[in-house]
Amino acid sequence: MKLGLGTVQFGLKYGVSNQSGRTPPDEVRRILSFAASVGVEVLDTAPAYGESEEVLGEFSSLASRFRIVTKTRSSVRLDAGDVTTDITSSLNRLKASRIYGLLVHTPKSLSGENGRRIFEELQALKTKGLVSKIGVSVYDSADIDEILSVHQPDIVQVPINVFDQRLLKSGHLRELRQRNIEIHARSVFLQGLLLMTPESLPSHLSSVRPHLEMYRNNIAALGMSPVGAAIRFAIEQPEIDIVLCGVNNLAQLKDIHQEADCHCLKSAIDWSQFSFAQETILNPSLWACLR
User: Fold this and answer.
1) What are the two backbone dihedrals, phi and then psi, of residue 221, each rounded to the nearest 5 degrees?
2) Which of 41, 80, 272 is nearest to 162 (CA)?
3) R_g (Cα) of the chain, nearest Å
4) Is residue 231 packed enough to be buried (19+ CB in 10 Å), middle (13-18) or exposed (0-12)?
5) For residue range 78-131, what is the model confidence (pLDDT) as tens digits?
6) Is the pLDDT reported for residue 209 higher than 50?
7) Residue 99: which of 108, 109, 89, 107 has the closest Cα?
8) Residues 246-276 as b or e (16 or more Cβ within 10 Å = b)
9) Domain limits of the chain?
């Protein structure tokens, strides 16, 4: 199954459309149980996700049924020693002896001589059997170009959604696939923006309102829900291996799973008509500058 579970909501209040706050532990248990029962295979977490790793550790018997991917600390000043410290701390919090994947959280930290030492340390962790695959979480095509010029990661986590089609248009997803690099897609709901009504957008995101109105009118005419359209777009991309979706509660996961499991996913929709070009909207890390 392509569907993977993002866990940032387990440790933080996250997402522009999140009105319920951090997911309570009992709800996390229900989410993990359901996810395991329907064949979800990947959990994505990170030290930067508040107490997400600790929460997964509380349910380690459930979490161990998944391939867990975590990340290093989020810092451009990351060094090789930090990588070992970070994975040791993550394994302790997760109550695990090894995990599936370890990604560098900040791609700029792989630049220069320090980046070579970091990548060598990641390779050493694979050799020791602490992780099965190593990689990096990126933000744009420039990050991918810079990393591929000097490194061969096993996994690259990328932002992509029906509005943010930059890596499709540039051919970078195709290049990653040609290099046999596993691609994990995040931000498929654009932190929940794609699920909001135009009227409920915060004022600092008002520039996307006409485009969101057009998009929602079009998918409604096709009989698709906002969740269904976002999931279908991501799953229909042949290059993508895992579509990561964060949820606040079990009901949301069941809704997402129903859409992801639909046998009529492949559609004749021209998704390119919904592409949006404004980077300050496509990159949530820039939203603060719009306030």
Assistant:
1) -65, -25
2) 272
3) 18
4) buried
5) 999 999 999 999 999 999 999 999 999 999 999 877 899 999 999 999 999 999
6) yes
7) 89
8) bbbbbebbebbbebbeeeeeeeebebeebeb
9) 3-290
Structure tokens at 51: 């107490």
Whole-structure pTM value: 0.94
Q: Which residues pair with 42 in a beta bridge?
A: 67
For tokens 């060094």, name the residue.
79
Residue linked to tokens 């993550």? 90
Distance CA 204, CA 7 (A): 26
The one-letter code for the residue type at 63 is A
Condensed to tens digits (0 to 9), the pLDDT of residues 248-268 reads 999 999 999 999 887 455 567
- Residue range 150-155: mean pLDDT, rounded: 96
What integer pLDDT is reported at residue 15 of this predicted model?
A: 47
Q: What's the CATH number for 3-290?
A: 3.20.20.100
